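Researcher: We're teaching a course module on how sequence relates to structure. For the next exercise, students receive a sequence and then see the predicted structure as tokens, so they can try to spot secondary structure elements on their own. Here is the exercise chain.
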Amino acid sequence: MQQCEWTIEQQTVLLLGSITVTDENLERARTFFAVKNFDHAVWISYLLDHKLALITFWNIKKYKLEGLIPGKWRHILDLYFQSNQYRNERMMEELSSVLEALYNADVRCVLLKGSMLRYTVYPDIGLRYSNDIDLLIPENDLTKAAEIISSLQFIQGHYKLDEKIIVPASRQQIMLKRMTTHELVPFLKEIKKPFCEFIELDVHFDIFSRSKNLQHAFPIKELFENAELRFIGEQHVPCYTLSPTHNLLQLASHAYQDAALMQGILNRKDNELIKYVDIYESVLLNKGSIDWVQFAADLLEGQVNHVFYYVAYHVELLFGEIFPASFMEAIRPERLDYLNQYAQEEAEPVQWKTSFMERLFDRSRIDEVFQVFQVDRERFAESNKFFGVFEGQFR
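Model: And here is the predicted structure for the students to work with:
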């Protein structure tokens, strides 16, 4: 782990922020917790920023570190963990009817990201928080899937927090979202349960951005052809999961889009450490069974090697070398200046003023992007297509 002049609170976020904790990292965490002026409030705020509070608390219990954490902070983390367990259980109850209906209609629905990782990578359902549930559905089944989901009392739109109501999307918004992105307008359903006022389904039909400057040749149909049928949860609900390499690619594409595209950055989703932890743990779980030579060939043929390299490079920056060196060399793009650029969907990307490691805990980094966006908005033609209709819905 590279420290980059981080405070002890910042370093401790990464030391205990993954399921796989080395003895060295555990001892360093013990040492930092013992420092008299260790600021637990600041530390927990970083955990929440990076969505690592749940994993960290699980490690605190597993390695019997409770005595090093003041009671009030320990209780807050405990309540958060228990409430997330409850929330995920309620979300699964609602999701099960959707997955059953899609499966019975012969729609191959692939569960993605956190909702999938809870059942395949992480050892406890409470370890992974998700804002929503992500589904990948073949493009030619989207109309059928939308009708099925809508029949289960879901509404396409967005949730208005101040009024606690679902605002249906306009026909223009629904059409524009499908035409200019790789997903549909979210499907929402009020369930009014503790810690879970509503449930949101994000339906994807591609795992890559479809902005004109980010075109690729990756055969999306192969994702569905190689997907594996699983029966998850206590109810043994049927759904599909991606193959190990396709799952890594999807997780990497998601992290790349949030870190390097305007929409993700302006929604403050860039640099969330949980996305890199997801990939780190997925690699460790499947490393021995992956054909890295074939995976590299697939990335190069599909013209998405730069997407995976971007994320793999930063995973290794954080956790050390976990990918075969020959694999990293095979997928390495000719130019690496894009590693510290954003607005990759635009004709001319923008250079960050600071490095990835410097930005990781810098909450003011967004000010730089907002300033560029507001001063020279005409420069961001691709972003404007989206924000012109959906502006004001940043989370």
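Model: If you want an answer key for the exercise: The first helix runs from residue 8 to 15. The chain has a mean pLDDT of 93.
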